[in-house]
Amino acid sequence: MNPQSPRWIEPAIAAGSVVLLLALSYQILAPFIAALVWAGILVYATWTPFLWLSRKLGDRRGLAAALLVLLFALLILVPLVVAGVELSLNLDEIVAWARSKLNGGLPDLPAWLLSLPWFGPKLAEFWGELNAGDPETMARLHEWIKPLGGFLLVFGKAVGSGLLLLVLSLFFSFFLYVSGHSFVKWLMAALRRIGGERAQALMKLAGGTVRGVVYGFIGTALVQGALAWFGYWLAGVPNAAAFGLVSCFLSLIPGGPSLLGLPVAAWLYMQGGTGWAIFLAIWMVAVVASADNIVKPLVIGKESNLPFVLILIGVLGGALAWGMLGVFLGPTLLAVSFTLLRNWGATPTLAEAEAAMTPPADTLSEAVAVATGRRHAAPEGRPASAVVIPTEEAPPPGEDLSTDQR
User: Fold this and answer.
1) pLDDT score for 102
2) CA distances from 176 to 46, 149, 351 (A)
């Protein structure tokens, strides 16, 4: 470049090249960022079992990573595939059963529901018109149901994209298992260079929060599955254990167990068990679904030592902002922000300030010795800080202090 050109041109070109390179890299990685984040969360939460398995296999990280990924695929993907196949095989029977029930007319509504003030008479009138096949009522019902088709289409796309995201996450997790320790070393070194020990502490806090969210998911799934099984068993639903197991997997979706419990409650009502149907619907919505908002924040708070309200806001707000991934990002970001604000707003005590401003005793002694020119070598086996520095009042070392010289 021309030596007479301004000095800022070369740094500007270098900075622009770096920004362009980062922008292009982000554009390439953007479709896979969510899968990479999920893979990182999975690997971090299961890093200790991975190290244990790797040691058992003679430090063969590749084999240990492959076994763990295969195990996760069996635990997550296989039940979903089996449930989808069973549903598709029995779909014709379900439709035929529903048509047979509807051909015989709609079931009668319970008397207590029809006796409700203002709402009961209107519901009875609408139910009667619907049972009689009134064209105007059927057209109105069709308008109400029309958005349901769009919702089911969006839901199907979300399920498909979720499965693809899960497969990609498992694929990326294999490589993170194998070489994740190198990335962690680089990250910790970069954090030490940027923020010192405080940055490392924040990194540990973020990791503990993520680990708490993972444990919260597992704990919530077990609790909701057990509560759902108890409700199905108490209501006399066949195969209550199988429904409880499915509810355990559905708990990964906010309100997932209710998606199964409400249709089962409707089936109980169609069978004539009105009381148990109402009980099951209330149990799934009020008890099972609310466990998600209690168990998960408690477990996360145990790992990150954050206030319960802050964790609850992080879980709910993150889910509303970024979906399922926000359940992890919300509490983690709030945990780091809360810790930064708490440390920034903390006022040091007088003793802490004096301790921070006062050099250690060894350093002070060495400085005085150098300044006075009386630094003495420490005797063998004696630390330098233990050497007595003579003062103006004290006689030089070795001077005789006998009575004759006084």
Assistant:
1) 57
2) 11, 40, 46
Which carries the bigger pLDDT value, residue 96 or residue 53?
53
Rounded CA gap, 80 and 70, in Å? 15
Q: What is the per-residue pLDDT across 138-188, written as a single tens digit (0 to 9) for each?
A: 677 667 666 766 766 776 777 677 778 888 988 999 999 988 778 878 877
Tell me the H-state helices in 251-399: 256-270, 274-282, 292-304, 308-322, 324-345, 350-357, 361-372
Which tokens hold the place of 201? Answer: 């502490």
Q: In terms of Cα–Cα distance, which of 381, 377, 358 is closest to 369?
A: 377
DSSP letter for 285, please: I
| Residues composing the chain | 406
Exposure b/e, 366-405, CB count within 10 A at least 16 = b: beebeeeeeeeeeeeeeeeeebeeeeeeeeeeeeeeeeee
Number of H helices, E strands in the chain: 16, 0
C-alpha to C-alpha distance for 216 and 251, rounded to whole angstroms: 11
**Any residues with CB less than 8 A from the CB of 318 and at least 6 apart, and which?**
325, 326, 327, 328, 329, 330, 331, 333
Most confident of the following: 13-27, 180-194, 362-376: 13-27
**Residue holding tokens 């990326």?**
172
Q: What is the pTM of this model?
A: 0.60
The answer to whether 257 touches 221, Cβ cutoff 8 Å, is no
**Mean pLDDT along residues 341-351:** 60
Backbone angle region of 376, left / alpha / beta, with phi > 0 → left and psi within -120 to 50 → alpha: beta
What are the tens digits of pLDDT across the range 374-388? 444 444 444 444 444
| Secondary structure class of 320 (helix, strand, coil) | helix
Sequence-separated (6 or more) residues with CB below 8 Å from residue 220: 251, 291, 292, 295, 296, 299
